[in-house]
Specification:
6 helices; Beta-Lactamase; 165 residues; alpha+beta; globular; four-stranded antiparallel sheet
């Protein structure tokens, strides 16, 4: 897949993976599903779900470390500033042949353009109301884990939006 195709595919993921409603129950169910998907793959991640700035779910699997929470914070900041997944910001920055700091003035201690944080949007609103994030895998794998869990939770056709077929 070319970089342009990947950018288009991630934009499609963001358009497709939106919620009818989002509350503490949804956060618990989704966070638990992300955990189960990671366990099924034999990988360790930290998982965070934040809604309107309020932490609703956090879990750090055995094998993660305190640095994973900081990566999540920076990824979440990126989503909330740019209203795109942190992976999409990263691949758009790569396509531009620059860095996030040079492109936007974002400080690396607060923002990071790598996969692992996905915007929570309500259908019909377009507004980003929160984030679901993971840290612990390579950037693209963090992103893919979220997409797999979101597609499962939202009953979306994963094959039509996946980066890898």
């Amino acid at each position: 897949m070319t970089l342009e195709e990947e950018i288009s595919r991630v934009a499609l993921q963001e358009k497709t993976l939106q919620f009818e409603r989002f509350n503490t129950t949804v956060a618990w169910e989704l966070g638990s599903l992300v955990k189960a998907k990671a366990e099924a793959r034999g990988v360790a991640v930290a998982i965070d779900i934040t809604l309107a700035g309020a932490p609703l779910f956090f879990y750090a699997m055995a094998g993660t470390n305190p640095g994973n929470a900081d990566w999540i914070r920076r990824k979440r900041n990126t989503v909330m500033r740019f209203h795109k997944s942190s992976y999409l910001v990263g691949i758009e920055t790569e396509k531009a042949g620059t860095t996030l700091e040079a492109r936007t003035g974002s400080t690396p201690s607060e923002y990071v353009a790598v996969g692992g944080s996905f915007p929570i949007r309500l259908l019909g609103s377009g507004a980003v109301i929160g984030t679901v994030s993971v840290s612990g895998l390579p950037a693209r794998d963090d992103h893919n884990l979220l997409v797999i869990a979101l597609a499962d939770y939202l009953k979306a056709d994963l094959a039509s939006i996946a980066l890898d077929h």
